[in-house]
Amino acid sequence: MKYTVSIEIALPRERAVQLLADPAHMPKWLRGLVLHEPLSGVHGQVGTKSRVVMQMGQRTFEGTETITRREPPDLHGIPKASVVHFDREIVGDGMWSAVRDRLTEAGPETTLWVSENEYRFGSMLMRLVGLLMPGAFRKQSREHMQDFKAFAEEGKDVREAKG
Fold first, then answer.
1. Helix 13-21 and helix 134-154: axis angle, to 10°?
2. Domain around 20
3. Which Pfam families match (predicted)?
4. What is the per-residue pLDDT across 57-96, written as a single tens digit (0 to 9) for each?
5. Strands ordered across the beta sheet of 110-121
6. What domain count does the chain have?
7. Which residues of 98-117 are buried (b: 16+ CB within 10 A; e: fewer)?
8. Is residue 159 included in any domain, yes or no?
9. Looking at residue 1, what DSSP letter applies?
10. For residues 67 and 70, what is the distance between their CA atoms, to the nearest angstrom?
C-alpha cells in the first residue's frame, strides 16, 4: 500500500526542519508516542536504529526505526533551492513501512512538507487490515502532520489535548 500526504507550514523551511528533527519535541506533536529511544547511532542521523512504541487506542505497536536518508546532514544554512530529505524504515510485528519526507520552500515564510508512505504486511491479519482500511493509515499520517503544524505554528502540545 502506498500513498502521499502533504501540508503547508507557516514557518521558514530551516526552522520547520529543525523542529521536526529535534527528538525533544516529538512527544509534543507525535500523538500516541510512548517511547522513541536510539538503540544505536545518534538520533536522527543516517543508520541510527531506534525502538519506537506507539499507543493507538487499545492497541500498542512496537517496532524498530532505521534512518535511511537525511539530507542535508546539517540543518543550518540550508541553500534555498535544495530539498530536505528525511527517510526512515520501520519494522514491527507483521509490518514494514517506509516514510520518505521532503521539505521545500513554498515561500519565504512557508514550508511544503510532502510525505510518501509505503506499507508491506507480513501477516494475514495485517494484510486484511491494509485492504479493508487503507484510509485509516492515510488519516493517521495526515493527523501527525496537522499536529506538527499546530505545534510548530502555535506551540500546541498534543499531550494537553484530551479527547
1. 110
2. 2-31+70-154
3. Polyketide_cyc2
4. 888 899 999 999 999 988 888 988 899 999 999 999 888 9
5. 2-9, 110-121, 95-107, 84-92, 59-71, 49-56, 33-40
6. 1
7. bbbbbbebeeeeebbbebbb
8. no
9. -
10. 8
